[in-house]
Amino acid sequence: MRRLHRRPTRVIAVASGKGGVGKTNVVANLAVGLARLGESVMVFDADLGLGNIDILLGLAPRFNLSHVIRGERSLEEILVRGPHGLWVLPAASGVASMAALTPAQQANLIDAVSRLNVPVDYLLIDCAAGISGDVLTFSRAAQEVVVVLSNEPASIADAYALVKVLSRQYGLKRFQLLPNMVRDAAEGKALFARFCSVADRYLDVSIGLAGAIPLDPALRSAVRAQRAVIESAPGSPSAKAFGALVERVRTWPMPEGAGGQLAFFMQQWMQPEPASPAS
Fold this sequence. Notes:
By secondary structure, the protein is α/β, with parallel strands linked by helices. The protein has twelve helices and nine strands. It has helices spanning 23-36, 53-56, 65-69, 75-78, 103-114, 133-141, 153-168, 185-202, 217-224, 229-232, 237-251, 263-270; strands spanning 10-16, 41-46, 80-81, 87-89, 122-129, 144-149, 174-182, 206-209, 213-214. Strands 1, 2, 3, 4, 5, 6, 7, 8 and 9 form a nine-stranded mixed sheet that branches. Strand 7 (174-182), helix 8 (185-202) and strand 8 form a beta-alpha-beta unit. Helix 1 crosses helix 11 (237-251) and helix 5 (103-114) runs parallel beside helix 12. The radius of gyration is 18 Å and the shape is globular. The model is unreliable at 1-5 and 268-279 (pLDDT under 50).
């Protein structure tokens, strides 16, 4: 039987300048939404010391990336299946050393990733909050960087700082902004316009509006139930907004060339196996 040739993998980093803005919830709902539509999805929990994407998806992995770093398990051995067959590479939770990997340890992790043979359509990288070395490394690996922020001064300032560092120090020029926990789409658009008015003056970047996610009771209930709201309450305002985000992501054109230092490794990792002759 001949295997269909997959399109190139879309690598999307989801980051935030500040914690507590719902970044991991965005990743969980985007992953489930894409998987429901038949896309092959992997979530890489890159919040290495405080990972919790597995908790949001109701998973209980035995092993995580800390076991890979210590040489006790391979990436293949820590992979777990989530809703609709999506894959999760779980991070450690409460392991301080994982939040401060040495360059050698990062290189070992990159090498392990480069040798993992699991072809997928979308690789979603759930970055830690802030501008630590790990966040910058994984954001540079992606073809798209989605910056999640809420409509409060500290979140806006920290999101701007993240974009500034990635653009000025690492040459990233394209970002997607995702206002989260806003009252409605109008508030999200106003926040986007305010952010862009400053970025346009001081930074040489292109910023798109990925959408706007409202805060509603269904979203909080979904978190408590360890489910994606896009499934648990599909008619809720937040679920509809996540659905729109999923559709928008699927229309993003595939950039040409590698997005950063790690993109080469990730593209090699995600290359489909050659089709075998029909039997």
